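Researcher: Good morning. I'm working through a list of sequences from a screen, and I'd like to move beyond sequence-only analysis. For each chain I'm collecting a predicted structure so we can compare shapes side by side. This is the next one on the list. No need for commentary yet; just the structure.
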Amino acid sequence: MSATVPQNETRLGVSAAIAAYTMWGLLPLFLIALRDVGADQVLVHRIIWSVPFGALIIIGRKQWPDVKQALRDPKVMIALFASSAIIALNWLIYIAAVQSQHIFEASLGYYINPLIYVLVGVLFLGEKLGRPQQVAVALAVIGVSILTVYGGKFPTISLVLAVSFTGYGYIRKLAPVGAMPGLFIETLILAPFALGYLLFFVPEAEQAFGTAPALTALLLAAGPITVLPLLCFALGARRLQLSTLGFLQFIGPTLQFLIGLIDGEPFTRAHQLCFAFIWIAAGIFAWDAIRRSRAPQPKPALQS
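Model: Good morning. Structure tokens for this chain:
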């Protein structure tokens, strides 16, 4: 029997993955529309409205048994408590970065995210870097160093986003729970804290929800905008090789970068040099991933 994924399934996987990364890449447009709302309130509503919308997806995909199984497993719940805290930090930093016109730094964080994954594999999983990966990491370090020294600014936002998202992905990879059930439980964990913060720490006069129909609709949309990309990603990840996903994932930060240009964010000489090195590193990384996926697999040893 061939383990090859049917062509129509592959096409569906590619379409779903492109949709996911495109939605993530266009997310700054949504956050720019909410610049008059504090990053804390945007985060709170993103969490709160993800719960009912996520529940609808869980019902539609008949995944309640997966949710119940995860809720009964203490090890899975410990992992999801940790991942929920990390993803909440990641979301808050990203929202604040976009609203304060630091979209380039946010984009940079997701360009270097795959390279951070590689370093995690080396440091914690005993993996070894191939020569192309070594070159890609070195170029990324040079790019970040140029922005730090020549630009006079350490890219804290970029590194926090990259490291936090890598940590989130690492924990979720170890936890035996699906993408949608996991996200639903994470938002369920965060929802009481989000609601409590909104009720007790945001003065009623400063609360944005309900002040204007358009603004209220945008905040309600934070739920679908959070959940739908992950659903598309889950559909794509099941049908595609990791090398294909690794190549497609650069759609997101590229769209973010273009939005930063349109938004009028200053693109300094330090940014230009930094991104040049990062783009070359990303290209080498993607090329190496595709090359590895096409390499012939070693035949299993014969049993004596």
